[in-house]
Design goal:
single chain, alpha+beta, TIM Barrel, Immunoglobulin-like, 8-stranded parallel β-sheet, 12 helices, globular
């Protein structure tokens, strides 16, 4: 009996160790959420330095709320708020928090950049007395306790553009700041200031130093193909490397990408920055900026390790404002500085709705027939109701064809553009498998939404065009279609012109209730003194936007 008991004990220990090993291999979202289904937070970033008007902040928040973008990373520059030791002014952050609550925006502030009175040197130097840093962080967290629930400590402390102290000093700064957060609000999350060096040995120092014990989130930043020559597609492997470190030390901390961006700037000779040159002519356009966002989202979501993604940034920096770094800083926004949307704006809004429901990754269940493709990228995300979203693309310069077989049978399918427009998509069903024939264009991305049963409301635009009337006047025509099987009440249809275009009639959004399959024709009159652009947009609180750009 004793021998049998010993065998049973050893068997249970072995089973437990296998279970631990298996758990250690699970994606972080599975470990932390306790489910294979999860949808990362998706939002934007924007900085509001001292001197920003509340009216400008409100304009940002109002536009975000209109398009269902409700998460925003913002900065709290220590030197902007505590201009002398012990003397703080919070009116700017007070306004920001009040407006965020008014428009339903969740804030993710990062506290950074020391005043010179605290460093006796540059703003990116370590404070002489970390008690000063502790006191400021504590005051900020205590002031907004119950209204802000996440606090990031510094920003890119491994980047000499933002920190000139040693790495050991940065680790100590983060530890002291995190302690201040927990002392002021034990329920708040503490976030490590975004890492730019993401190699595992570097990340591991956060754990071996003991600083990770004070943290709820590890945060990494990406600017691939802008200031980093690494291809966008390598994001997956980088995330996995960082997540492996977190898993190795217990898997407690969430992994965020709280700053990621892609500039649409390029010089005539193909130079983007000191580190990056374009490799194809379609890169560094406004359209490809949105495509890169979509590809980046796919690579990050496919890891199932990232729980929050915040894209940089709401709008381009004003051309007359100062920036840390090169000219790319003025070309990262989803909006122009005059608030004219870029393709990226609609892409973020569309993905927020497309991926709003929890999903699990089913890449391992796909069968991909590469046909003439060299190295296609294909990811598939399955919702709990059985719907599947497939994203596929290629790099290079050639158009390539592939076949993707997805497990399951589906009632309907739509193909999405990166700005949210939709068309019907045909597929081949055989038994309990469904095959998609995809044509991959390297300047774009294929987005297919498969519905296990009836499709919810889905907005689309058709027959959009500009009809010349003479003397610089145009009639803009479009048809709005509900391609879903459910009705859509309160659909808003509008045009958004750039500064070269004036709306003569139809300036206010028009509202419609669209039954399943219903189409409504809409028109506007505009005047363009010079060549201009405008967006035709249909949007809905649940169905997301559909947008198309017209050149006049």
């Amino acid at each position: 009996m004793k021998r049998l008991a010993l065998i049973l004990v050893l068997a249970s220990v072995l089973a437990a160790s296998v279970g631990i090993a298996h758990g250690a291999m699970l994606p972080l979202n599975h470990i932390q959420q306790g489910s294979a289904y999860f949808s990362p937070v998706l939002g934007l970033c924007e900085d509001y330095p001292r001197g920003t008007f509340a009216e400008d902040i409100e304009r940002d928040f109002a536009m975000m709320a209109e398009y269902g973008i409700t998460d925003l990373r913002v900065s709290i520059a220590w030197g902007d708020f505590e201009f002398a030791k012990g003397f703080t002014e919070w009116w700017l952050m007070d306004d920001t928090v009040d407006l965020a609550e008014k428009y339903g925006i969740t804030l993710y502030p990062y506290i950074c950049y020391a005043p010179t009175w605290a460093t006796r040197a540059a703003w990116k130097s370590p404070p002489e007395d970390l008690q000063d840093w502790y006191d400021f962080v504590y005051e900020a967290v205590d002031r907004y306790k119950g209204r802000i629930h996440v606090w990031e400590l510094w920003n890119e402390g491994d980047n000499e553009d933002f920190w000139v102290g040693t790495w050991e000093e940065q680790l100590e700064l983060v530890k002291v700041g995190a302690q201040a957060v927990k002392d002021a609000d034990p329920t708040a999350k503490t976030v490590f200031g975004g890492l730019t060096k993401k190699n595992p040995p570097h990340v591991e120092t956060i754990f071996t130093s003991g600083v990770a014990d004070y943290l709820d989130v590890i945060n990494i930043h990406f600017y691939n193909e802008t200031w980093d020559s690494t291809p966008t597609e390598r994001i997956y492997e980088t995330v996995k490397g960082v997540a492996d470190v977190i898993r190795r030390y217990g898997g407690r901390q969430e992994l965020w990408v709280a700053e990621i961006g892609y500039s649409d700037y390029v010089e005539p000779d193909g130079r983007v920055s000191y580190w990056v040159r374009t490799r194809a002519p379609y890169e560094k356009t406004r359209h490809f900026q949105a495509v890169t966002f979509a590809r980046s989202y796919a690579r990050m979501a496919a890891t199932e390790d990232i729980s929050t993604i915040l894209w940089y940034e709401v709008k381009n920096l004003r051309s007359n404002s100062a920036a840390i770094g090169d000219v790319n800083n003025y070309h990262l926004g989803a909006l122009d500085e005059d608030y004219f949307p870029k393709h990226l704006w609609f892409a973020v809004a569309a993905f927020n709705k497309l991926f709003a429901e929890s999903f699990t990754v089913i890449d391992s269940q796909l069968v991909v027939d590469k046909e003439n493709a060299i190295y296609p990228y294909v990811h598939a995300f399955q919702r709990q109701n059985g719907d599947v979203i497939v994203l596929a693309w290629n790099r290079g310069t050639a158009v390539e064809s592939i076949g993707v077989t997805v497990p399951g049978s589906f009632a309907d399918a739509l193909q999405h553009t990166v700005t949210g427009n939709k068309t019907s998509f045909s597929f081949t069903a055989e038994g309990n498998d469904t095959t998609l024939a995809l044509e991959l264009r390297p300047e774009d991305i294929s987005i297919i939404e498969l519905f296990a049963s009836s499709a919810p409301a889905r907005l689309a635009l058709a027959d959009w065009n500009a009809e010349k009337l003479g003397n610089g006047a145009y009639r803009i025509n479009a048809t709005v279609v509900n391609r879903g099987s459910a009705g859509a009440d309160g659909v808003l249809v509008e045009i958004i012109p750039n500064p070269n275009v004036t709306i003569i009639s139809g300036a206010e959004p028009q509202a419609f209730d669209l039954a399943p399959g219903e189409a409504v024709s809409v028109s506007w009159e505009v005047e363009a003194a010079r060549p201009g652009q405008l967006w035709v947009v249909a949007r809905h609180r649940d169905a997301g936007p559909a947008a198309e750009l017209l050149q006049l």
